[in-house]
């Protein structure tokens, strides 16, 4: 009896198109059974031919031979056990009991499921071998990957998961009980041997230590060797996020090659760098998705500030509905600057949106948008962080939601400022709380103050203090109690909440959680005409219909003038000798506006007198 590979394979069916027989199982293994006495073996021949593909003749011996299928004696089929058996002569561990153990697992698989089969794996099929514990356990990449199925045409095993990460654990006991114990915690792929130590090692799946499964973190880990940003800190940050997502991969950052973007267009320049719009071929949510590319100045030589914004953004993916989504990092090959890949807000900043759409907003829209901003800020505070630079230019409007952006100055709530930076702040003066202008440490309450200014802006449609210079004089006025005034009638409930947010005493300001709950209730109240809020809105709208000023909205949007020195981009602010923050003398005595007209006018007189005194002293 002989065994051979049959080049052509067996007949399958007749092809009318080719007018020839179609064949399958090319290079299949068959058995050749000599027919020593052809004339006297007619019955034997007839019995055997039912299991035969045909007859051949050895040209040297002239003997006829039956071409028989090479079937498994147990299942009477050409099964996986047979394919493994035919390869036994091509490998050995060098140890008889290990060979027999591996062969036993291979001879037990007669069906298509080969998941429990063990292999002998040459040690040179592993790379990046690193020791991970003192108990002789290693991590490595397996070049070939696992067996998937037998390919009849190629007459070989098809494999998957090439270059996968596996664990190598010293094999001290070949006993079945020991192997079964290992199987409780790991999947075993096979056995190998370190050629230097001569130690035999089991090849195990690389399970996640936290969830005890082969989860997304393992799949990400297996790809670490296929990319790099060129910067160890950025690599580590991206990898850390990928190693934290056991189920939801949407929160993992990615390194994205720059050539995966096209149609890159400049949008704007901010305090930290430039922003571009681009199309991301692969997309974070769908292919050819628009994204924002944010480069930070001098990021070629990576700075702590740049890394800070990256790290801060990565902490808030849970709140992506209301904090701008961060997809990953890329690098401009020409400038070598690193770039953040962020969700693209179709409608731009809140300020831009109000300039073009304010006249179309109703009270439901305004309260809904404020609730979304409050939700994002509440998410930041829930994580014990402070934004520090909240203003309408950092609120972005997508098709569905408002999103808080620019987390560059965001910091832990318990972070202590160094003495040399105590009196230096960065932001937009008209949104900065008075205690911060005076150099005190940023708190969550300071963010609430900024939110109060945004409430005023979204409801009025106007930038705060748009008609005056944003200079040292404005800083003094804010500390003395100046606040923006409405040019329209606003419900007293709304005014009262804004006043609480803008209170000179940080301890009197509401928390983001309380603010969120109030806005949420108001949104529900709009569905009921009998609520106090609805009554006040109706009263305010009746009065506003009769109110005409130069700032009144038109069909084309808002019409207002901005002072040439009114600055609404973040900048360094440094003021000295500012007065102690205080509220206006009648702050809580009236709720028709944030501050009374009388106080605003008296403050102008006080400041004018202050200027006269200064001039006399010169």
From TrEMBL:
Coiled-coil residue spans: 519-550
InterPro entries cross-referenced by the UniProt entry: Kinase-like_dom_sf, Prot_kinase_dom, Ser-Thr/Tyr_kinase_cat_dom, Ser/Thr_Kinases-Pseudokinases
Keyword field: ATP-binding, Coiled coil, Kinase, Nucleotide-binding, Transferase
MF term (GO), any: protein serine/threonine kinase activity
Residue ranges of domain Protein kinase in the record: 261-519
Top-level taxon: Eukaryota
Classification via Pfam families: PK_Tyr_Ser-Thr (PF07714)
Keyword rRNA-binding applies: no
PANTHER family: MITOGEN-ACTIVATED PROTEIN KINASE KINASE KINASE 20, SERINE/THREONINE-PROTEIN KINASE TNNI3K-RELATED
Name of the protein described by the UniProt record: Kinase-like domain-containing protein
Species annotation: Rhizophagus irregularis (strain DAOM 181602 / DAOM 197198 / MUCL 43194)
């Amino acid at each position: 009896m002989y065994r051979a590979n049959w080049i052509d394979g067996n007949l399958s069916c007749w092809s009318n198109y080719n007018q020839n027989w179609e064949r399958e199982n090319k290079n299949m293994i068959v058995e050749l059974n000599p027919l020593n006495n052809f004339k006297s073996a007619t019955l034997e021949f007839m019995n055997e031919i039912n299991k035969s593909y045909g007859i051949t003749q050895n040209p040297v011996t002239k003997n006829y031979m039956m071409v028989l299928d090479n079937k498994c004696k147990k299942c009477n089929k050409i099964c996986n056990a047979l394919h493994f058996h035919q390869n036994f002569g091509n490998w050995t561990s060098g140890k008889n009991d290990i060979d027999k153990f591996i062969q036993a697992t291979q001879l037990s698989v007669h069906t298509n499921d080969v998941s429990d089969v063990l292999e002998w794996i040459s040690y040179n099929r592993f790379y990046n071998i690193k020791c991970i514990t003192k108990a002789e356990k290693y991590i490595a990449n397996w070049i070939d990957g696992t067996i998937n199925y037998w390919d009849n045409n190629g007459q070989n095993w098809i494999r998957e998961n090439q270059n996968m990460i596996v664990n190598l654990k010293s094999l001290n006991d070949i006993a079945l009980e020991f192997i079964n114990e290992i199987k409780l915690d790991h999947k075993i792929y096979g056995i190998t041997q370190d050629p230097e130590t001569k130690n035999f090692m089991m090849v195990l799946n690389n399970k996640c230590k936290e969830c005890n499964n082969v989860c997304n973190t393992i799949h990400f880990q297996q790809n670490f060797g296929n990319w790099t940003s060129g910067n160890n800190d950025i690599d580590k940050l991206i990898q850390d996020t990928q190693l934290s997502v056991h189920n939801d991969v949407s929160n993992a950052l990615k390194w994205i090659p720059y050539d995966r973007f096209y149609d890159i267009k400049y949008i704007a320049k901010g305090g930290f760098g430039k922003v571009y719009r681009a199309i991301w071929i692969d997309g974070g949510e769908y292919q050819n998705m628009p994204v924002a590319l944010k480069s930070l100045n001098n990021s070629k030589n990576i700075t702590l500030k740049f890394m800070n914004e990256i790290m801060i953004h990565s902490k808030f993916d849970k709140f992506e509905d209301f904090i701008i989504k961060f997809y990953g990092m890329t690098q401009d090959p020409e400038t070598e600057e690193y770039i953040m890949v962020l969700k693209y807000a179709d409608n731009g900043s809140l300020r831009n949106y109000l300039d073009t759409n304010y006249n179309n907003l109703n009270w439901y829209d305004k309260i809904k948008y404020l609730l979304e901003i409050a939700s994002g800020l509440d998410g930041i505070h829930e994580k014990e962080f402070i934004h520090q630079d909240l203003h309408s230019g950092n609120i972005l409007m997508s098709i569905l939601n408002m999103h808080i952006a620019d987390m560059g100055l965001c910091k832990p709530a318990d972070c202590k400022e160094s003495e040399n930076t105590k009196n230096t702040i960065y932001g937009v003066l008209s949104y900065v709380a008075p205690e911060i202008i005076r150099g005190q440490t940023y708190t969550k309450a300071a963010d609430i103050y900024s939110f109060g200014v945004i409430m005023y802006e979204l409801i009025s449609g106007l930038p705060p203090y748009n008609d005056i210079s944003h200079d040292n004089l404005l800083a003094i006025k804010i500390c003395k109690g100046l606040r923006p005034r409405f040019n329209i009638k606003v419900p007293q409930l709304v005014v009262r909440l804004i006043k609480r947010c803008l209170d000179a005493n940080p301890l009197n300001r509401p928390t983001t959680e309380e603010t969120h709950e109030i806005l949420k209730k108001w949104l529900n109240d709009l569905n009921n005409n009998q609520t106090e809020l609805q009554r006040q809105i109706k009263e305010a709208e009746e009065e506003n219909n009769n109110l005409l000023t130069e700032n009144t909205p038109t069909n084309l949007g808002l019409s207002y003038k901005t002072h040439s020195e009114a600055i609404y981009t973040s900048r360094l602010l440094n003021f000295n000798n500012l007065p102690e923050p205080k509220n206006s003398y009648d702050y809580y005595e009236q709720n028709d506006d944030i501050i009374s007209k009388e106080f605003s006018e008296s403050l102008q007189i006080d400041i004018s007198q202050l200027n006269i005194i200064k001039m006399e002293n010169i």
